[in-house]
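User: I'm curious whether this sequence folds into something compact or stays loose and floppy. Could you predict its structure so I can see for myself?
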Amino acid sequence: MQGIFLETAPERFTLEEAAQRCRALGAELASPGQLYAAWNAGLDACNPGWLADGSVRYPIVTPRERCGGALPGVKTIFLFRNQTGFPDAQSRYDAYCFRGKEGHPQMLPSRDQWEAREASGRDACPRWVCWVQQSRGVLQGRVCVGIPECSLSRAALSGRSRG
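Assistant: Here's the prediction. I'll summarize afterward.
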């Protein structure tokens, strides 16, 4: 699979840790352009994450008060109140990773540890599938991948979610 996905961990990542985590998954930190393209295709995540240029952004399709206010868009976390500067590289955020056509993850979620969830909910064909790992109700990790042109049917998706 190719596309952009959100990678998270309980402690989050510094910029360098985020880049290392994406590489460990056979990907790289996404560019702002890749995040904008994913947002335009329907990616909605209230999770600020590192990008390749050192910025921290998150895509919002459905506006909500706690996720950047009343307008949709790709939101940016700035260092200063006048909306300039990137966050310190030692700050901790999630990571937006990108895997191209040739990229292959080194680690895939096992069916007994992860729950597959459809993330689009609006179309007959899901655009994103997310695997969420929880332990005692606490989010341990999440991986989302884009599904190009309905290559995975709802029947296949529902079969995966049952494990």
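Summary: Confidence is low (pLDDT under 50) at residues 103-128, 147-163. The two ends are 20 Å apart (CA to CA).
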